Amino acid sequence: MRILLAEDDKNLGEALKAGLAHDGFQVDWVRDGQAAIYESKSTQYAALVLDIGLPLKTGFEVLQELRSQGIKIPILVLTAQDGVESITQGLDLGGDDYVIKPVALQVLTAKLRALIRRSEGLTHNQLTAGDLSLNPATYEVFLSEQLISISKKEFALLHVLMTSSNRVMTKSQLEQQLYSWGHEVESNAIEVHIHNIRKKIGNGYIHTIRGIGYQFKANA
């Protein structure tokens, strides 16, 4: 899952980016509110982690502009420990949840997963299709109750496809979800990952839509 992190503090930003990446998120990091607005509009992110005290435009201004323009990205607000008024204002302006600094990474990642899950219309973490199941919290995939060995990129790709079940996803859309800034993407990377996943779960779930992309069918 690709997310946007908007945090101006260098040390905290680096720590959050590294921690989120370790937990399987692809992270793009910006350090001011104008950049947060621009990137939220131009790229399809699964969620935005938004600090309130940003330069150029505050987190409040970012929230107000995104929501007034109908941008529905799930937004997790970062606020100071004594920021009760900030929490209230952030939620009233369209924030979906909040985390108090200093940030507990486990809480941050759990809340992110919950926000993304709700935005996808899911009520619990585990995704199930036939005898295939995937758990974003534990990064495990089971087929017929047997644990499958799967790489992080394969897991991320299967997660995107399962949460977009029955929708046709283009190669470009899949690349956007799997790779953050600075990652060079080989032209056949998606095809290779799809091939490897099919070898592990069978050919019935992921269908190639010739000339367009791929479609996950839950009733394989």
Question: How would you describe this structure to a colleague?
Answer:
With 220 residues, the chain is of the alpha/beta class. Helices cover 41% and strands 22% of the residues. The chain is built from eight helices and twelve strands. Strands 2-1-3-4-5 form a five-stranded parallel sheet, sandwiched between helices. It has a four-stranded antiparallel sheet with strand order 6-7-8-9, with helices on one face. The longest helix is centred in the middle third of the chain and has 15 residues, at 105-119. The radius of gyration is 18 Å and the shape is elongated. The two termini are 24 Å apart.
> What can be said about the biggest beta sheet?
5 strands, parallel
Strand order of the largest sheet: 2-1-3-4-5
Secondary-structure-derived class: alpha/beta
Proportion of residues in β-strands: 15-25%
Judging from the principal axes of the Cα atoms, what is the shape? elongated
- Poorly predicted regions are none
Q: Give me the number of helical elements.
A: 8
